Amino acid sequence: MKKNISCPCGEHITGQDEDDLVAKTQQHLKENHPGHDYSRDEILFMAY
């Protein structure tokens, strides 16, 4: 199960599971990178 992702801004995001990772990543994008929203599939594709 993929639970980690690195944002291009250098922020490292870790989730409890894939759902948590997607939620945290979308929240990070909303707060820090308005206009850059990715779908669940796109986030999981970049996760590891």
Describe the 3D structure:
With 48 residues, the protein is an alpha+beta fold. The protein is built from two helices and two strands, in the order E-E-H-H. Strands 1-2 form a two-stranded antiparallel sheet. It is globular and about 30 Å long. The N and C termini lie close together (8 Å).
Shape: globular
Percent strand: 5-15%
Biggest sheet, spatial arrangement of strands: 1-2
Q: Which stretches are low in confidence, meaning pLDDT under 50 for 5 or more residues running? A: none
Q: What is the CA–CA distance across the termini? A: 8 Å
Helix content: 40-55%
Main β-sheet description: 2 strands, antiparallel
Would you tell me the overall average pLDDT? 96
Strand/helix succession: EEHH
Protein name: DUF1059 domain-containing protein
Pfam families: DUF1059
InterPro entries: DUF1059
Organism: Saccharothrix hoggarensis
Essential attributes:
alpha+beta, 2 strands, 46% helix, DUF1059
Short description:
This protein is of the alpha+beta class and about 50 residues long.
Write the layout of secondary structure elements.
Blueprint (H helix, E strand, L loop, with lengths): L3 E3 L5 E3 L3 H15 L7 H7 L2
Antiparallel strand pairs: 1-2
Pfam families: DUF1059 (PF06348)
Protein name: DUF1059 domain-containing protein
InterPro entries: DUF1059
